[in-house]
Design brief:
Distance between the termini: 28 Å
Largest sheet: 6 strands, antiparallel
CATH class of one domain: Alpha Beta
Order of helices and strands: EEEEEEHEEHHEEHEEH
Helix content: 25-40%
Radius of gyration: 18 Å
Length: about 180
Amino acid sequence: MRLIRTDEDKGARIRIGKKRLSGIAVAMALFIGTHENKIDRKGRVSLPADYRAELPNDDDRVIYIFPSLYTTALEACDRTQLELHAERINALDQFSQEEAYFSSQILAEARKITIDGDGRIVLPTEFMNRANIDGKALFVGGGPKFHIWQPQAYGTHRLETQDALAGRTLPSLPRPAP
């Protein structure tokens, strides 16, 4: 975890990168890079050290995993990011089909996964089956979240997205007021 300290923090340490959750600024993890790890015979896989470093360093070291809405991968995030998903879903009309869909596919499907003392997690069997993950898992950074892929499936996805993004650029963000 990269930390910064300023006089305004009065000695408080905060992670670089912030999001607003209900008007309150909160620290945000930054998951980057691609890491392939073996799954042992007990179904455990090491969470990449770079990713573990982005998570809170307390007794309740957990991540949240749910099947991706758009790919065969699994999505994973920390509690802060899952709370942002919940806030966005709760902002939808309570009785709308859209709210019901997102709620059932993200919040109802999400599983709280504990990271053991050796930095390993156990992926739920039903999630591994859905994502066709067996033997190896590929962790792919996605900023405030990361994906867990079957390595060959990600290879195909990576080539497809490279082709789809050819010639495109990211939109500009508005500059903060001075």
